[in-house]
């Protein structure tokens, strides 16, 4: 008689747990490498950093665009929520101020946030669409604040990008310390952006990310 071997009942759960662990490791490695080396890193580099084989990586993420979207989806969703709330605020200045404060705190808690906003990957259409929608919302909030006389009239989107880029240097030992630092930095930025007769003219703004700036 043929001997039947029964698999342990816990195996499917163990497989699911292993699959989730591998996915989490791949995403953590992708965020780290995208942040330090840009989106030009290869899938093999990401697999090596995650400690998984290329086959495992491609089974979870068939294309690099899939991996880019998955790596930054939480950051982009958070950014969208910030912009939606600002657009809904009836006070233009409070809405604009909220964007600066919340974005800087989000970046302090997850330093991949700024990379998600600034990075570009041409094959990730959904990724580009979400980011461009966020940019259009920020521009709309800024225009309302300028028209209300609350935000300095020479503010441009590139100034927002300068704030984000500078925030990447806010590094402290703990998330709580980074958050406190980000809140103070936000207060300083907001005070400098508030409309005032005491402000002198700003130097010409650089074009930091023209590909996502609405015409």
TrEMBL record:
Domain of life: Bacteria
DNA-binding region: 42-61
InterPro entries attached to this UniProt entry: DNA-bd_HTH_TetR-type_CS, Homeodomain-like_sf, HTH-type_TetR-like_transc_reg, HTH_TetR, Tet_transcr_reg_TetR-rel_C_sf, TetR_SbtR-like_C
Record keywords: DNA-binding, Transcription, Transcription regulation
Gene3D superfamilies: Tetracycline Repressor, domain 2
GO MF entry, a single one: DNA-binding transcription factor activity
Any Pfam family matching the protein: TetR_N
Segments forming domain HTH tetR-type: 20-79
PANTHER family on file: HTH-TYPE TRANSCRIPTIONAL REGULATOR BETI, HTH-TYPE TRANSCRIPTIONAL REGULATOR RUTR
Protein name (Swiss-Prot/TrEMBL): AcrR family transcriptional regulator
Lineage, opening ranks: Bacteria, Bacillati, Actinomycetota, Actinomycetes, Micrococcales
